[in-house]
Design a protein that fits this description.
Elements lengths: L2 H28 L18 E3 L11 H9 L3 E7 L5 E5 L6 E3 L5 E3 L14 E4 L3 E3 L4 E2 L5 H11 L5 E5 L5 E2 L13 E4 L2 E4 L13
Parallel strand pairs: 1-2, 1-6, 6-9, 7-10, 9-11
Antiparallel strand pairs: 2-3, 4-5, 7-8, 11-12
Helix pairs in contact: 1-2
């Protein structure tokens, strides 16, 4: 995909995700929360926190998203890949504070916050190859985000789980593994696709 198209797609995703985050913050201020929608910070304290990632290759670009969220006062966390493929987390402090890592990744150079920092996020953005109408996400096979999703589930974290994709990657059905967890929504350039209600996630059965 041409770089200008990738960039334009990233800007569209930034707008959609920013709208979701702002909607959640507004609900938190009003003391209300509608099922299936992102809301304010857990407990209603502190700035909105979004766990995101730096896109690579032909993934929908997250660069505009990261900068827009940070400029809006959102606390953005980025993953740091560990030797065992698990993910630590560190704050996003701007593009100039990203460093090259293995597998072509860019990672934050700041303080490592630990594996469980993600459980304090309001919204967790996930990469993927596709998602289906049940909210089941097809990952890249490394298992890193499977561990993150399992950690969130064990902590009963209220974060909204959102996968960032192109429109053609929202499918009727994807292959399911026993450990897969559904996400709440997919954000694509054309809009937001919502699948389920936070707190109602469970292990999906095989199709």
């Amino acid at each position: 995909m041409p770089p200008d198209v990738v960039a334009a797609t990233g800007e569209a995703l930034a707008r959609r995700t920013r709208e979701m985050a702002e909607f959640r913050a507004a609900q938190s201020r009003e003391g209300t929360r509608r099922p299936g929608e992102p809301g304010g910070s857990p407990g209603g304290a502190g700035p909105l926190t979004v766990a995101a990632y730096v896109s690579i290759g032909q993934e929908p670009s997250t660069r505009p998203l990261l900068d827009e969220l940070r400029a809006a006062g959102v606390r953005v966390l980025l993953p740091v890949l560990l030797p065992d493929n698990d993910l630590d987390w560190a704050p996003y402090e701007g593009a100039e504070r990203l460093v090259r890592a293995g597998w072509g990744l860019l990672e934050p150079a700041g303080e490592r916050l630990g594996l469980h920092a993600v459980t304090g996020a309001d919204v967790v953005l996930l990469p993927g190859l596709a998602v289906d109408r049940r909210g089941l996400r097809l990952g890249r096979g490394g298992g890193s985000y499977d561990r993150v999703l399992a950690r969130l589930e064990r902590a009963a974290a209220p974060a909204a789980l959102v996968v960032l994709l192109y429109d053609a990657e929202v499918l009727d059905e994807v292959p399911v593994e026993e450990h897969d967890r559904p996400v709440d929504a997919a954000v694509t350039p054309s809009g937001v696709h919502r699948f389920g209600k936070p707190g109602k996630r469970g292990k999906p059965g095989r199709p």
